[in-house]
Amino acid sequence: MTDLTVIQCHFVRGVLNHRLRFGKPDKTVKLDKYRKLACFKPEETLGYIRWRANEYGTQDWRFFIFKTQTTGLLTRVPGVTPAVKVLAAFHGTQAVKRALSAFDDVEKSSPEPIETLPDAYWVSFQNDISARQTLSGVLPHSSHVEARHAI
After folding, report:
1. Residue 13: its pLDDT value, please?
2. How many CB atoms within 10 Å of residue 105?
3. Which of 16, 69, 88, 106 gives 65 a disulfide partner, CB atoms 3.0 to 4.6 angstroms apart?
4. Could you tell me which residues come within 8 angstroms of residue 50 by beta carbon, excluding any fewer than 6 positions away?
5. What DSSP letter does each residue of 65-108 carry, written as one string?
6. What pLDDT is attached to residue 133?
7. Peptide bond into 82 cis (omega under 30)
């Protein structure tokens, strides 16, 4: 049995968009013009967006930040096989818009690659967004960066 985590990416204009927001796959398998599979080794952190709409507008919008692993407390995420460790999850249009806006700010201000931020940071990130804190409350604190370089 392989330890790879497989993410389904699927795009149909105006109907659905399941894609990676960040994370570099170890392998990508193109199925057809609209679909591909992204394969990740264990212990990788990545962002995954699932969006679906119909003639009435957005029906489902989710943003997940998770870590690929094979042991511990794991959660099933649609489009992901096998289960993963969810570090942050946002559901609904307003929550996802707030999370993506804050995420863009984190990405711009972080001196190191976004994939290397500690797991605890993403849990704190979700709590801050869910509590509707200001963006200054979700930017990477220097203590996270200093702690990473001290190890």
Report:
1. 94
2. 15
3. 88
4. 16, 17, 18, 60, 61, 62, 63, 64, 78, 79
5. EEE--SSSS-B--TTEES-BEEEEEEESHHHHHHHHHHHHHHHH
6. 61
7. yes
